[in-house]
Amino acid sequence: MTLYSPLKNYIDIRISEKLATNIAMEVNAAISRIRSVIWLSFTCYVFTLFRYCSGVNRNLFRLVNDGKLENKS
After folding, report:
1. Cβ neighbours for 69, distance < 8 A, ≥ 6 positions apart
2. Nearest residue to 34 (alpha-carbon basis) of 46, 23, 42
3. How far apart are CA 44 and CA 49, in angstroms?
4. How many Å apart are CA 16 and CA 9, to the nearest integer?
5. Predicted pLDDT at 62
6. Whole-number pLDDT of residue 67
7. At a CB cut-off of 8 Å and minimum separation 6, what does 11 contact?
């Protein structure tokens, strides 16, 4: 059985639309995953930097205060 030309064209168009929709959905999903990875990486970086700087400031504060206490004695 052969398909009539208008019906075949309609099926081809519908398949093309479905493929275009699927591709657009995949692209959007990939962009969303990339954004999530970037956000997670940035959040981890900021958290690590905050913890490191807090430790450095804490140690510097101890050094400065210990020196002041020793000078007062």
Report:
1. none
2. 42
3. 8
4. 10
5. 79
6. 64
7. 3
In the chain, helix, strand, coil percent, each to 5?
95, 0, 5
Residues 3 and 11 sit within 8 Å (Cβ to Cβ): yes
Which tokens sit at 60?
Answer: 């510097």
Query: Each residue of 2-14: b (16+ CB within 10 Å) or e?
Result: eeeeeeeeeeeee
Q: What is the dihedral of CA 4, 10, 12, 14, to 10 degrees?
A: -150
At residue 73, the 3 state secondary structure works out as coil
Q: Which amino acid is at 30?
A: A
pLDDT averages per 10-residue partition of the chain, 73 residues: 74 93 97 97 93 83 70 53
Q: How far apart are CA 28 and CA 26, in angstroms?
A: 5
